[in-house]
Design goal:
Rossmann fold, four-stranded parallel β-sheet, alpha/beta, TIM Barrel, single chain
Length: about 230
């Protein structure tokens, strides 16, 4: 049977998928037009423990080359050791999985865990020295009756620090906030500030009457006036 898949002359690479892109499947896809591919994602930690099932996932047939091995993990030392171990399979490349959204993968800090930090990882990486990132945390879903969230068990200050913010700070009350704001201009950003707040709002608090763009303009005008 002749290959039936074409991509206008462009390389057609088979993306990795756990439990799907094993060796027989990759060979079949190569027969039908794939120009290369990747193995299923392989646990870097399992490789360093000598797990034979993980080693089996790294096997590459000469007929499917070029083929890269995809690793997942979050510890640089373990990933480095695993990369050295898979050299025995002579892969055409080594890929790091940073997109798997499965809870059991992300929950261990692997896969798409970095993307789940949202802008915080980007802010820490770019380090804008004039940025102050403030979150007001009441540890509840205010819009649905104040139901508690898991925010009480999460240290956003530690997350910000791990992401590379120059300063990661938190306050519990108005007095602490006033003291912090008095010397905040002396600090160089990016600065992360978590302000703990109580559940509840004013009884006369109405619904928004302005658009987000209008709010942005008003806020920027306010900052300009203060300068």
């Amino acid at each position: 049977m002749e290959p039936q898949v074409e991509a206008g002359g462009l390389p057609l690479l088979l993306a990795p998928m756990a439990g799907v892109t094993d060796l027989p499947f990759r060979l079949l896809c190569r027969r039908f037009g794939a120009t290369g591919g990747l193995t299923e994602m392989v646990s870097a930690k399992a490789l360093t423990f000598g797990d034979q099932k993980s080693r089996k996932l790294c096997e590459i047939d000469p007929a499917e080359r070029p083929c890269a091995i995809q690793l997942f993990g979050h510890e640089p030392e373990v990933l480095g050791q695993a990369a050295r171990l898979v050299e025995a399979f002579a892969p055409d490349g080594i890929d790091l999985n940073m997109g798997c959204p499965m809870p059991k993968i992300v929950g261990s800090g692997d896969g798409a865990a970095l993307m789940h930090t949202g802008a915080m990882a980007v802010i820490g990486s770019r380090s804008p020295n004039n940025l102050i990132h403030v979150i007001v945390n009441n540890e509840a879903h205010e819009s649905v009756g104040g139901q508690p969230t898991v925010a009480s068990a999460v240290s956003f200050v530690q997350i910000a620090s791990a992401c590379g913010y120059a300063h990661a700070l938190g306050v519990e009350n108005a007095e602490e906030l006033r003291d912090l704001l008095s010397n905040l201009p002396e600090r160089q950003g990016p600065i992360f500030l978590e302000v703990k707040a109580a559940v509840g709002s004013r009884e006369d608090l109405g619904r928004p009457t302005t658009t987000p763009l209008q709010n942005k303009k008003v806020f920027m005008d306010f900052l300009k006036e203060r300068d």
